Amino acid sequence: MRSSLLLLAGLASHALGLPSTSVEDRSIDVDVGADINIGNIHADLDLDVFIGDILGGGVQSSTSLLGGLSAQAAAALQAGALGCSAGKIHHSALVELKHWLHGAAHIEAGLKNALLHWCDAGAQATLEADVIAGLSVLLPTCSDIVSKGGLYVTIDGIFEAHELEAAAVLDAATQSSLNAFIKGASHLEAEVKAALSLCAGGGVVTSLTEEVKASLKAWLHSSDCGLDHGLKISILAWLQGKIESGVVSLGHLSDGSLSSVSVGASLLALVDESGALVQTARQSLLAFLHSSAAAHLEADIKHVLESCAKGELATSISAEVRSALAVWLSSSSCSIGAELKSVLLFWLSFAVDVNAHIGLDLGIVGDLLSFLTGTLGQVLGGGLRGILTILLGGESFLSLSLKARAEIIAIIGGATSIELPSNCITIIIEWITGCIIPGHGSGSSSSMIPPPSSTAPAASTPGVSTPVSTPVVSTSAPAPVESSSVPVYP
Question: Which residues form the signal peptide (predicted)?
């Protein structure tokens, strides 16, 4: 299912119409200390057994379970699992899903019956909370199937890749000019620098928070702005998503990029804007805790998962306990599955301190640039590179929009078709959570990457690659990285 890529990821969020609110709460009350009682909704649906089977407690995997599912049918299934009403799904996709369900001998009977009913129940019909909770563990595989058909899914429905590929980015010459300006500029505010860095790295504007975009716009119109007229006009057009002089379309997106958009949308639906899990995500987590896959959890990990399942915020958990969870999620012993792992990483990211930065020494920067300018950058394409320029500059993860954060986390959680080596996952986990991963994260390094050349060539296509050295998370301001080191993407 996955391609083996060595890359440091960031995925710029560029989805159109991603949800701004969480999935409607249609769930039942759940007590962490008791068994989940879902008989009053679907008596034949046993979440504990089903989720335990998918996550390793049984013989079925999501890949075998969804065998023969078409891209359209997978998109319909995924949309339903996001809480999408049937009326937002193409009729042809619902027909394909129904056809597959009638022949799907191994899918859990309760899920099958609920999905068949949903397909025929009318435009306003949505799936029940327990059904959504069960389907959530299938979302990574669904996203992979969907992306191979050139599609992506949000709570607003099913969309084709070209709607993302039209997003605006600076062309190579304008990126080069902006990089030269950043190198010579001094006293740029952090938000302005983060925005300019992402822009100069070929990123898309939807990767930034509204506050960061507003800061950039205000600076562009102020007397402090030292950009020449042409460059200023190009950046203003980029801010508005317009294809004008110096601004071009993003272009082709890989299957991995598309799947991260779909999984990112699911994370936005499963964690609300305050950082708490919505009830369907809590039910999925509780079902995992009651399954055989969680039988050997350490007490402190089980306790923090139970707190999360109660709806507590990551900010209410001590830094020590959050770090323990981050270490477990980054370890090979983590048995929670890609979707729930991504949900928990997203939950942890809401506790990152606004003053936390990644400090990168020159050796690490060289490693990053080696990947950026290598051929692996051609595999992904898209706006991934813009996120990496923010990391290179030591800027805060909080400069990124929730959509961008969710899509990055979808990748490092293993919920997309992009497979990262463990040391790269550790780097990004430290960045998004502010937690230190002892022995694998801060302070460690690798000699896997050859030294970068003195001149960084331009990549032939947009993309992002992977470093293997690791950052240091600190609360002090990061040392600036020479902007001229950032490669330019045509």
Answer: 1-17
Give the number of other Cβ atoms within 10 Å of residue 3's Cβ: 12
Nearest to residue 368, comparing CAs of 2, 9, 12? Answer: 9
What is the four-CA torsion angle of 353, 359, 360, 362, rounded to 10 degrees?
160
Residue 138 lies in a domain: yes
Cα 361–Cα 367–Cα 372 angle in degrees, nearest 5: 120
pTM: 0.79
Domain count, the chain: 1
Give the pair of three-digit tokens for residue 429: 């986990």
Classify residue 452: in a domain, yes or no. no
Contact by Cβ (8 Å): 464, 368: no
Residue 70 CA to residue 114 CA, distance in Å, equals 19
Which run of H or of E encompasses 474?
A: strand 472-474
Q: What is the DSSP letter of 293?
A: G
3 state SS of 172: helix
67, part of any domain:
yes
Long-range contact set of residues 323-332: C-beta below 8 Å, sequence gap at least 24? 323/435, 323/436, 323/437, 324/300, 325/301, 326/429, 326/430, 326/433, 326/435, 326/437, 327/435, 327/437, 327/438, 328/298, 328/301, 329/429, 330/422, 330/425, 330/426, 330/429, 330/437, 330/440, 332/422
Per-residue pLDDT tens, the chain, 490 aa: give them: 444 333 333 333 333 333 333 333 333 333 433 333 323 344 456 777 788 777 764 556 788 888 899 999 999 999 999 999 999 999 999 999 999 999 886 788 888 999 999 999 889 999 998 899 889 889 999 999 999 999 999 999 999 999 888 889 999 999 999 999 998 888 899 999 999 999 998 889 999 999 999 999 999 999 999 999 999 999 999 999 999 999 999 888 888 888 989 999 999 999 999 999 999 999 999 989 988 888 889 999 999 999 999 999 999 999 999 999 999 999 888 889 899 999 999 999 999 886 666 555 455 555 556 555 554 445 455 566 777 778 777 788 899 999 999 988 998 899 987 776 666 777 788 889 988 887 654 443 332 223 233 233 233 333 333 333 333 334 333 444 444 345 555 5
- Tokens coding 174: 């304008």
Task: Give domain status of residue 121, yes or no.
Answer: yes
Residue with tokens 């959509």: 403
Domain that holds residue 113: 35-163
